[in-house]
Amino acid sequence: MLCQYFAADQCRSCQLLATPYSAQLDEKQQQLLRLLPSLQDTVVLPPEASAEMHFRNKAKMVVMGTAANPVLGIVNHQQQSIDLTACPLYPTEFIQAFAQITAFIQLAGLQPYDVTTKKGELKFVLLTRSSATGQWMLRFVMRSQNCVAAMRKHLPSLLQQWPQLFVCSVNLQPEHKAVLEGDVEILLTRQSMLPEMLNDVPMYIQPQSFFQTNPVLAAKLYQTARDWTAELPLVQIWDLFCGVGGFALHLAAPGRTLTGIEISESAIACASLSAAELGLDNFQFQALDAAAFAKAQQQRPDLLVVNPPRRGLGPELCATVARLQPGWLLYSSCNPQTLSSDLALLTEYQLRKVQLFDLFPHTTHAEVLCLLQLSPSAKI
């Protein structure tokens, strides 16, 4: 992939860009194999490659410059303000979207926040595009509510110019430090959820709910989870760290019941809406701490699905899994290092299948899906 920012040493976010993509993928696969325990009786599948460009469905832009001449991009490794609106990771539709956002900032007079002087209001713009509908969710991260009235006043003009804008909100982040967003979200549109569709599953994205940045590879990841578990004798399923329900909703089948747990209330609202739309009365989603939920349980599920943050499950949650002893464990990891540490603790499980999904090309990150089975020798 050719990138003008990388060639000019203006952006190094894609730190592996100088390495041919096939070599990137091979190195990630080899690193994964080095981290995994014994692969005896394990089916190791080839990695799923991503498109090299135009694969991202969302952008996180620092807003710099002035209200009259805003700059959307990054402050790079040389402390330069770089306009990143032509980044080749984004589909071409993002270029026009960034132009609409820039014009709105100018129209509403939104002064970019300056970290040094601690003056200004607009810190970031967060933009998400639905791959299914082509609609958008736009979030303005602001220091205060001072500009909300002006934004409401000028929003009709933005919606007229940009009819595909479906959800728009203001996030309040008053702290003078590098925190991306705050807890308070102010909706500017009637709609609060961006509709999406992966495979045959309707999904929804709300402000502050997590969704994968590479929808094509995410769809393959969820479909693989569905395929791997299709023939397993499952009745009760738990999905910890379920997010908006990507894995859970793909595991729906007659006779199966599922409990999805996620700390984010907005994500649970999205998952619950999808389940209702699919008529899954036997699926319930709860906004709870995943580790606390699992620790409080006495009965084990047939399948436990876990998709933890980069820190992994950790010793305490691994101990809870070992106590509960679900018959099967489906583990999706965004950090092969912590995955390796967790698998070393789950000694009563045998790794049956593993596959790498390169959701983050040109970086060292990767998503790994594992299917584990409780060893027949484990004491239940």
Poorly predicted ranges: none
What percent of the residues sit in helical stretches (DSSP H or I)? 25-40%
Quick one: overall form?
globular
Major β-sheet annotation: 8 strands, mixed
| Count of helical stretches | 10
SSE string, helix = H, strand = E? HHEEEEHEEHEEEEHEHEHEHEHEHEE
CATH topology of the largest domain: Rossmann fold
Output the CATH class name of the largest domain: Alpha Beta
Number of strands: 17
Rg from alpha-carbon coordinates: 22 Å
CATH architectural name of the largest domain? 3-Layer(aba) Sandwich
Name of the CATH superfamily of the largest domain? Vaccinia Virus protein VP39
Strand content: 25-35%
* Through-space gap between termini: 52 Å
Placed side by side, the strands forming the largest sheet appear as 1-16-17-15-14-11-12-13
Arithmetic mean pLDDT: 96
Which structural class best describes the helix and strand composition? alpha/beta
Structurally, the number of domains stands at: 2
Structural write-up:
With 380 residues, the chain is an alpha/beta fold. It has two domains: 207 residues, Vaccinia Virus protein VP39 (Rossmann fold); 141 residues, OB fold (Dihydrolipoamide Acetyltransferase, E2P) (Beta Barrel), CATH 2.40.50. It contains ten helices and 17 strands. The strands form three sheets. Strands 1-16-17-15-14-11-12-13 form an eight-stranded mixed β-sheet, sandwiched between helices. Strands 4-3-2-5-6-7-8 form a seven-stranded mixed β-sheet. Helix 3 crosses helix 4. The longest helix is centred in the first third of the chain and has 16 residues. The radius of gyration is 22 Å and the shape is globular.
